[in-house]
């Protein structure tokens, strides 16, 4: 595909460079977000929501019906909510529900938390503290590899061998009624057979990511039929799960929202156990999903907004701006710093439409030009990413990449390289070293238009593929 000229509108996402979109000179004079009423958007008037008249073609899209996500619980109160015109069911959390935890966890004497990475410390401490408040005698025990450096960190958090709350991974798995597998994706891929073999019949495997299901499906395997399989997936990193839980001691219900899934239920307890787990983590809202939906959405999201697409986008915009004559420091500020600073903060607090409303009239025209040029090319790339995830190709790639980190079968270790070796990131080192404290960077209208187009294309791709709206609102 021909490279775009220095004066053209172009995007580079991952390995692809796209031809410029046709002129948007005849576009509507007010911005809109195509064909979706996403809950993250600030309410907009009808004229702002009508389609931008960009002369670009939409990728061929066949919508997939959303699966029914209704569930039954005998312990917690279920509520029906409407998100973007789709009805879903949720359970509201809150510390006032902690007295219900012994009933939700009926039959469970020990919860084994396997791993001490991002989620492990937060989930173990939240569960322990919630069960103490509920006056439950359920033991929360950390299971780690022999010789792991994480033993000291776990002890510092109050888990000890003497109290029976810290021990070897395999002994912990064997003696736990609920096993929360919070080790890395690659470690799950390498150790799932041994983990399954150590689990008691009728015990419950808990996951916070559906990766293992995707890996098993790619191999033509499934979970053992003798165990239940559930998931609770907090919509934030582990440190935030813990920090907001602690904050919730003063503000009832403060915490990170979570999705839950019941993939396999051997004795009818799985739904209540999963909901109890989420409530104990401090989730203000817990919404239903499927394990398959969760891993596809999560891995796809990482390849889009969180990692791959944004990296490709800022590299391309940095190149565009410098080729048009902008100095390198300003180009970095108007791409990376603009997105990670003022744009993200505005979206987080006031929604995407506020980004547009904050611009001057000339800035709004540049936003529309960028948004209109970027939206459908982003859809094309994101659909390709989604298909790689749903087909299992991306999961196989992740497993192989993880195995290259260590010496194995006579092959030397070959860890991944870092992304900070490009010219843009070298400039970034200089810019960040002199950045005033609290500086959120400039609100560059063209950058904002491309970024919002990418976000909306990802949301639209999720929904067109049959994923629940709450996965994007979480």
Automatic annotation (TrEMBL):
| Cofactor(s) listed | Mg(2+)
**Which species?**
Zea mays
The answer to whether the entry has keyword Oxidoreductase is: yes
Which UniProt keyword terms apply here?
Amino-acid biosynthesis, Branched-chain amino acid biosynthesis, Magnesium, Metal-binding, Oxidoreductase
* Name of the protein this chain belongs to: Acetohydroxy-acid reductoisomerase
| Encoding gene per record | LOC100193695
Annotated residues for binding of Mg(2+) 1: 298, 302
What range(s) does the KARI C-terminal knotted domain occupy? 290-438
One Pfam annotation reads KARI_N
What is its pathway?
Answer: Amino-acid biosynthesis; L-valine biosynthesis; L-valine from pyruvate: step 2/4; Amino-acid biosynthesis; L-isoleucine biosynthesis; L-isoleucine from 2-oxobutanoate: step 2/4
Query: Which family is this protein grouped under?
Result: Belongs to the ketol-acid reductoisomerase family.
Q: Which Gene3D superfamilies match?
A: N-(1-d-carboxylethyl)-l-norvaline Dehydrogenase, domain 2, NAD(P)-binding Rossmann-like Domain
The protein's matches in InterPro entries, at most eight in alphabetical order, are given as:
6-PGluconate_DH-like_C_sf, 6PGD_dom2, KARI, KARI_C, KARI_N, NAD(P)-bd_dom_sf
Q: Where does Mg(2+) 2 bind?
A: 298
Q: Among the record's GO biological process terms, what is one? A: isoleucine biosynthetic process
| One Gene Ontology MF term | metal ion binding
């Amino acid at each position: 595909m021909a490279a775009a000229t220095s004066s053209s509108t172009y995007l580079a996402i991952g390995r692809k460079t796209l031809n410029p979109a046709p002129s948007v000179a005849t576009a509507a004079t007010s911005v809109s977000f195509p064909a979706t009423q996403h809950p993250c958007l600030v309410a907009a008037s009808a004229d702002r929501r009508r389609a931008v008249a960009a002369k670009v073609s939409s990728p061929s899209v066949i919508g997939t019906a959303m699966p029914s996500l209704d569930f039954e619980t005998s312990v917690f109160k279920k509520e029906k909510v409407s998100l973007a015109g789709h009805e879903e069911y949720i359970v509201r959390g809150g510390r006032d529900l902690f007295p219900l935890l012994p009933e939700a966890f009926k039959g469970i004497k020990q919860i084994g938390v396997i791993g001490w990475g991002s989620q492990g410390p937060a989930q173990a401490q939240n569960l322990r503290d919630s069960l103490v408040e509920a006056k439950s005698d359920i033991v929360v025990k950390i299971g780690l590899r022999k010789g792991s450096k994480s033993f000291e960190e776990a002890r510092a958090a109050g888990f000890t061998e003497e109290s029976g709350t810290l021990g070897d991974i395999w002994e912990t798995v064997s003696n736990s009624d609920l096993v929360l597998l919070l080790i890395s994706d690659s470690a799950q891929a390498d150790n799932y057979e041994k983990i399954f073999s150590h689990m008691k019949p009728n015990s419950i495997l808990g996951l916070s990511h559906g990766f293992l299901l995707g890996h098993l499906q790619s191999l033509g395997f499934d979970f053992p039929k003798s165990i239940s399989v559930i998931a609770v997936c907090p919509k934030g990193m582990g440190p935030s799960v813990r920090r907001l839980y602690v904050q919730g001691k003063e503000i009832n219900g403060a915490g990170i929202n979570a999705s839950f899934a019941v993939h396999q239920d051997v004795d009818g307890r799985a739904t209540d156990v999963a909901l109890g787990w989420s409530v104990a983590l401090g989730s203000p809202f817990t919404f239903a999903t499927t394990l398959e939906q969760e891993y596809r959405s999560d891995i796809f999201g990482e390849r889009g907004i969180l990692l791959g697409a944004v990296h490709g986008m800022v590299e391309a915009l940095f190149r565009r701006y410098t080729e048009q004559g902008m100095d390198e420091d300003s180009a970095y500020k108007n791409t990376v710093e603009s997105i990670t600073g003022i744009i993200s903060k505005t979206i987080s607090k006031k929604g995407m439409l506020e980004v547009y409303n904050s611009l001057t009239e000339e800035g709004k025209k540049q936003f529309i030009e960028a948004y209109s040029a970027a939206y459908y090319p982003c859809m094309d790339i994101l659909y390709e990413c989604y298909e790689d995830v749903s087909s299992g190709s991306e999961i196989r790639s992740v497993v192989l990449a993880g195995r290259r980190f260590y010496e194995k079968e006579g092959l030397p270790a070959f860890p991944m390289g870092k992304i900070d070796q490009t010219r843009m990131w070298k400039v970034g080192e200089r810019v960040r070293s002199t950045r005033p404290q609290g500086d959120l960077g400039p609100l560059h209208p063209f950058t904002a238009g491309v970024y919002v187009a990418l976000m909306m294309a990802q949301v639209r791709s999720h929904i067109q593929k049959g994923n629940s709206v709450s996965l994007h609102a979480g």
